[in-house]
From TrEMBL, chains A, B:
Gene3D superfamilies linked: Spore Coat Polysaccharide Biosynthesis Protein SpsA, Chain A (3.90.550.10)
Molecular function via GO: galactosyltransferase activity
Stated family: Belongs to the glycosyltransferase 34 family.
Protein name: Glycosyltransferase 7
Regions annotated as coiled coil: 348-375
Length: 463, 463
């Protein structure tokens, strides 16, 4: 039993407790609420950190206003705050290179073709990408186009003029598709002249561009003639090297022209590093050069000159080492991954007409647009190009037209055709391609053989 | 006073209350906690939505596997899922162009220099960017470099060879800095020949590239000789046109060479559209051409030929219409926005040595790295170049070296110097620049006058 005093005490303590409870309750309620909020923030932050592939923006450099700095010169202006975090203008963070070691810090690393191939390149590239996360998104589709020509003026008086136009053509294609391009004009290995110059260049490019998944070598005498077409990279996901060719000619005929080594797509990976090493070892700088000349001439009965060449060499590796090399080499024959100009140029007028007929019918394709969103028309075109056909019987724009045998730089074209024929054909193909580019700038060449003349393209052309 | 029963009841009810309190308390505590968490999530989501500038990624196209499609051909392969959302590989969404109207759908839009300038360009560009948000981030620093040369082969046998090298040089600079480049090689207005060809090209480029804030015209005979330096765009935020020049020579001497119109940076805006229209109206296609020749010859006493030229024209507008034009034109004289080759090339060996001395001392600058993160070294270099000086008394790498007077294409160089002098100077500057590029590919030219030879760069060079 509780005494009145105890009861009263209880009342009082209840009241006190009640009052204290209210206050305590308020504080503890607040703490609980805040605790919930804090835990929520922590969870969100943890999840964001886990899934975020881009670093948080660098805090801007503290900066004084320009006028204060003007007298101090431009030193601080060169890294202005708005430029300090390059993610944005170009889409990538180009200003940060963390000091933690990566493969570049290994003194054994060599860019040179004669050095043994790098080891664990796949892992090293992956580590570099982790270190530079802004390049990680979309890496599987990132391409670096590599091309080039000799260091000295062309022997053909018209040679450098043509090379300049071929280079512009490639730059146009790359700009439309957000692809980087590197033009090399010096032999990285002095003995690896002519077509042999590719592999040293490609190896150096692979090491200089760990952000690129693919290196796309395109000869100086090859032009893009379908400015919209994109490499179907998904097709090649199980392969490391793509070349244009015909399996029948490789395996049955064993022809040295069963593939073309003037255009290839090679994955920036360990397999490729090793392949390049073996492929390059057939070259003039190697003691085995003469021996390779004999082997390749014996293997390919239609080879036209006795010296070892990179094209026969490639086919040889494909044929003889199927397990190691052949199985990873995709011989693409379903579209003009590169196309022989002789079976293409004569059809360009017809192709132009067929495409114009489609444009006349489809409003969307006539619509003007920024060059940067040209890719948006690809699926629209595909609807109408379903039956166009990719090869010589078809009328699709050929992807790449390759002037094999024309030798624009030296002028030592194949005697099968005249220099004028080659020249006219090159002008035609380049102007045909240029029309696809200039369209977005409001102009077109009315005559494919006259690169000097353009007319404004009227609104809603060609309706 | 409380009776024992009441007390007991109280005890019981307290106990019950206590028990019920515990349960209720637990639920209400949980609710409070969850409430705090919910409020926190809502706040974070609201803030993120407010500040987020990029849309959520486009859902990928539904696709059948390649093998199912292979027999159907390549049509669907050309827009493979991994490529369908182009944000990633290049950083921008190039595959979507919404059908809602934008300025391109106005039939009055003309790319041609002779058409009246577009109206409300600032608003139209803004609307286009809203429609294509992946280009909005970083737009204020986005540049398109425009250059070009004639449609026909150069008269100088060595001309196209040089133009090709100058073009490669620009492509190298642009690749390092994520800048797009457009090379034009046809007169968009047939009468606007030679230096007049710039304005039609720039106008067309502005309309074709609404994603670019700046168009940077760089003459075909100008080379980047500091591959690291970036335009200090913050400096120009209150201006719409940047040229290299000396105010004294403009305002006091009224010299026609007080500025150089071969390199300019123009904002992609309404002011610029109107300026270009006025500037171009001084050209050969305009009825006022002869009158302008007289006016400009009278205004600029040192003008060397009677015909209207774009450089004098620009200065004229700057001088005579200060309110409208002059105030928005930034005359940059504090660094080689473009520099006269004669005062530069002779110093390049010394510049090379000074930079090498710095590299010998600073480990970080010797560190190999991917070309794409070359910009990360800029602040490190700036520490050591504080007192280098930007002009002819200094030893900083000149930003752009302009071979004014050398006329590599026609060969009609200023008689002040020989063709050989020009040629050697161009080779030297281009090789000097190439060394900065090739370094990231593992090679260097030992002799600036010999573009044909490179040596591998050893690890930790030049320590």
């Amino acid at each position: 039993m509780v005494s009145p005093e105890q009861s009263q005490n209880q009342n009082f303590s209840m009241a006190k407790h009640s009052a204290r409870s209210k206050t305590t309750s308020f504080f503890s309620d607040t703490l609980l609420f805040a605790g919930g909020a804090l835990v929520a923030f922590l969870v969100v932050w943890a999840l964001w950190s886990l899934f975020s592939t881009t670093p948080s923006p660098t805090p801007s450099f503290s900066s004084t206003s320009f006028s204060e700095r003007k007298s101090a010169g431009l030193e601080s202006a060169v890294v202005s705050p708005s430029q300090s975090c390059a993610v944005g203008a170009s889409g990538f963070d180009m200003v940060h290179d963390p000091t933690d070691p990566n493969f570049y810090d290994d003194r054994k690393l060599s860019y040179s073709i004669e050095a043994p191939p790098i080891k664990n390149w796949d892992e090293k590239r992956r580590d570099w990408l982790k270190q530079h996360p802004s390049f990680a998104a979309g890496v599987e589709n990132r391409i670096l186009l590599v091309t080039g020509s000799q260091a000295t003026p062309c022997k053909n008086p018209i040679g450098d003029y043509l090379l300049l136009k071929f280079f512009k053509n490639k730059v146009d294609y790359c700009r439309r598709h957000g692809i980087d391009i590197f033009y090399n004009n010096v032999l990285l290995q002095p003995k690896m002249f002519s077509f042999w110059a590719k592999t040293p260049t490609v190896k150096a490019a692979m090491l200089a561009h760990p952000e690129a998944e693919w290196i796309w070598w395109v000869d100086s005498d090859a032009a893009f003639t379908d400015m919209d077409f994109k490499l179907p990279l998904d097709r090649y996901k199980a392969h490391n090297l793509v070349i244009h060719g015909w399996p029948k000619l490789i395996y049955e005929k064993k022809s040295w022209t069963s593939i073309n080594a003037g255009v290839f797509l090679i994955r920036n990976c360990q397999w490729a590093m090793e392949f390049i090493d073996v492929w390059a070892s057939m070259g003039p700088q190697d003691p085995g050069y003469d021996k390779w000349g004999e082997i390749l001439s014996t293997t390919f009965k239609d080879k036209i000159f006795p010296e070892s060449d990179d094209q026969s060499g490639l086919i040889y590796l494909l044929l003889k080492e199927k397990e190691k090399w052949g199985n990873k080499i995709y011989v693409e024959g379903e579209y003009y991954f590169e196309g022989y100009w002789m079976e293409i140029v004569g059809r360009l007028d017809n192709v132009t007409e067929r495409y114009m007929e489609i444009e006349k019918r489809v409003r969307r394709l006539r619509r003007r647009h920024a060059e940067k969103v040209s890719e948006s028309n690809i699926p629209v075109w595909e609807e109408y190009l379903k039956d166009a056909g990719f090869g010589r019987e078809g009328w699709r724009r050929p992807f790449i037209t390759h002037f094999t045998g024309c030798q624009p730089c030296s002028g030592d074209h194949n005697k099968m055709y005249s220099g004028q024929t080659c020249f006219d054909a090159m002008q035609k193909a380049l102007t045909f391609a240029d029309n696809q580019v200039l369209r977005n700038y409001g102009f077109m060449h009315p005559d494919l053989l006259d690169p000097s003349t353009v007319n404004p393209v009227p609104f809603d052309y060609p309706s």
